[in-house]
C-alpha cells in the first residue's frame, strides 16, 4: 500500500450518500487503499465488490444465527475480499442515548432490517417496534447479536474461512496476547469510536501496551480520533502499522459523496507527508518512537 491510512468499517453509508458503500469503495480504490466493508452496510457485498478494484476487507459481527454470519463470510471470501475483521467489542450494543432520543431508525426507510441489504432472504425480523419508540438499532441488535461472543468464536471463524482474521476492539495487553495465541493475523486497537463502553480508554493511550504485548508477531492497527496526518504519524511512532479512519470518511461522503470521501483520504495523506517531512522522515519506516513524547514519558523523566 502506498499509505498506512485505511477506511474503517462504518455501517449504513446510504445515510450519507445515495450510492452508499459503492461510493466509499471507489474513493478507496482511487487512493489505492483498503476499505473495510461493514457488516451493517447498506449496499450488498456483491455490489461493492463489482464496483471497483479496491482492496477490501470484510467486517463481521457474530450473530446468534451463526449460519447468517457464516454465509456472509463465504460470500465475501468468494468475492475476493482479502481478510475478515472480526469486531470483538460488540457482544451487545452500547447504550447510545442520542439514538434513543432521536428514535434512530436507519433512514431513509424507517426500518433497520431492510436497510441491511446483505441480510435479504437470510433472516426475518420483528420490525413492529414503533410503539416502543427508542432506537430501532438497539432493538435490532438485541435480536441479532450474540452476547456470548468469546474466544471460542475465533476458533469457529477459523474453521469456516481460510482468510486471515484481524480482531478489532482490543485495548489491553492481555487480550492482545490472547488474540495472537488464538491465531489472529492482526490486532486492531479500537474502542469502536467510543460508541460502546463509556470510560473505555482512548486508543492512542493503550496502543503502546498492545504493541509491546504483540511483540511483532502480527501487525497492530489502531483507530479512533485520527483527524490529521500528524495523528497518523503519532500512531505509527507508537508502533501501529496502519490507522483506520471512520467518521472523517463518513463526513466526506455526506458532503460530496465519492469525491468527498476521496478528498478526506487524500487530505490525510498529504498532511501525513507534510508531518513526516517536518520530522525528517523520508518514509514511514523512518518514523520512530523518538518522534513522540507521551504523558508517561514525561512522568518517567521526572522519576
Ligand atoms: C457511524 C458509525 C458506524 C460504525 N459502524 C461500525 C460497524 O458497522 N462495524 C464496526 O466494526 N465498527 C463500526 N464503527 C466503528 C468504526 O469502525 C471505528 O472503530 C471508529 O469509527 C473509529 O473512530 P473515528 O470515527 O474517530 O475514526 C462505526 C463508527 C461510526 C462512527
UniProtKB/TrEMBL annotation:
Tell me which EC number(s) this protein carries: 1.1.3.15
Cofactors needed by this protein, per the record, are: FMN
- Which Gene3D superfamilies does the record associate with it? Aldolase class I
Q: Which GO terms describe its cellular component?
A: peroxisome
Gene Ontology biological process terms in this record: defense response to bacterium; hydrogen peroxide biosynthetic process
The entry's protein name is (S)-2-hydroxy-acid oxidase
SUPFAM superfamilies annotated for this entry? FMN-linked oxidoreductases
Which GO molecular-function terms appear in the entry? (S)-2-hydroxy-acid oxidase activity; FMN binding
Q: Which domain of life is it from?
A: Eukaryota
The organism encoding this protein is Eleusine coracana subsp. coracana
Query: What residue stretches are annotated with the FMN hydroxy acid dehydrogenase domain?
Result: 1-297
Is Flavoprotein among this UniProt entry's keywords?
yes
Keyword Flavoprotein set for record: yes
Show the PANTHER family listed in the entry.
PEROXISOMAL (S)-2-HYDROXYACID OXIDASE GLO3, S -2-HYDROXY-ACID OXIDASE-RELATED
Q: Which Pfam families match?
A: FMN_dh (PF01070)
The record's principal subcellular location, in a coarse class, is: other
Q: Where in the cell is it found?
A: Peroxisome
Q: Which UniProt keywords apply?
A: Flavoprotein, FMN, Oxidoreductase, Peroxisome
User: Which InterPro entries does the entry mention?
Assistant: Aldolase_TIM (IPR013785), Alpha-hydoxy_acid_DH_FMN (IPR012133), FMN-dep_DH (IPR000262), FMN_HAD (IPR037396), FMN_hydac_DH_AS (IPR008259)
Q: Which family does it belong to?
A: Belongs to the FMN-dependent alpha-hydroxy acid dehydrogenase family.
Amino acid at each position: 500500500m502506498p499509505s498506512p491510512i485505511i477506511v474503517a468499517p462504518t455501517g449504513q453509508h446510504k445515510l450519507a450518500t445515495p450510492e452508499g458503500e459503492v461510493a466509499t469503495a471507489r474513493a478507496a480504490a482511487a487512493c489505492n487503499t483498503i476499505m473495510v466493508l461493514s457488516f451493517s452496510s447498506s449496499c450488498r457485498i456483491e455490489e461493492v465488490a463489482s464496483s471497483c478494484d479496491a482492496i477490501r476487507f470484510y467486517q463481521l459481527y457474530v450473530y446468534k444465527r451463526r449460519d447468517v454470519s457464516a454465509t456472509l463470510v463465504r460470500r465475501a471470501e468468494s468475492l475476493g475480499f482479502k481478510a475478515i475483521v472480526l469486531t470483538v467489542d460488540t457482544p451487545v450494543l452500547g447504550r447510545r442515548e442520542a439514538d434513543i432520543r432521536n428514535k434512530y431508525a436507519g433512514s431513509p426507510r424507517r426500518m433497520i432490517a431492510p436497510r441491511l441489504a446483505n441480510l435479504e432472504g437470510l433472516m426475518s425480523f420483528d420490525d413492529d417496534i414503533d410503539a416502543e419508540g427508542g432506537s430501532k438499532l438497539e432493538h435490532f441488535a438485541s435480536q441479532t447479536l450474540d452476547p456470548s461472543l468469546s474466544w471460542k468464536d475465533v476458533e469457529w471463524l477459523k474453521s469456516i474461512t481460510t482468510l486471515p482474521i484481524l480482531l478489532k476492539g482490543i485495548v489491553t495487553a492481555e487480550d492482545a496476547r490472547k488474540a495472537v495465541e488464538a491465531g489472529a493475523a492482526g490486532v486492531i486497537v479500537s474502542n469502536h469510536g467510543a460508541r460502546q463502553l463509556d470510560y473505555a480508554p482512548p486508543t492512542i493511550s493503550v496502543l503502546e501496551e498492545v504493541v509491546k504485548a504483540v511483540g511483532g508477531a502480527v501487525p497492530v492497527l489502531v483507530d479512533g480520533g485520527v483527524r490529521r496526518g500528524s495523528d497518523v504519524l503519532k500512531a505509527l511512532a507508537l508502533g501501529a502499522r496502519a490507522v483506520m479512519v471512520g467518521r472523517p470518511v463518513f463526513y466526506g461522503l455526506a458532503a460530496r459523496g465519492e469525491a468527498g470521501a476521496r478528498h478526506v483520504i487524500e487530505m490525510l495523506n498529504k498532511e501525513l507527508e507534510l508531518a513526516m517531512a517536518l520530522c525528517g522522515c523520508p518514509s514511514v519506516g523512518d518514523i520512530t518512537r523518538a518522534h513522540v513524547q507521551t504523558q508517561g514519558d514525561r512522568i518517567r523523566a521526572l522519576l
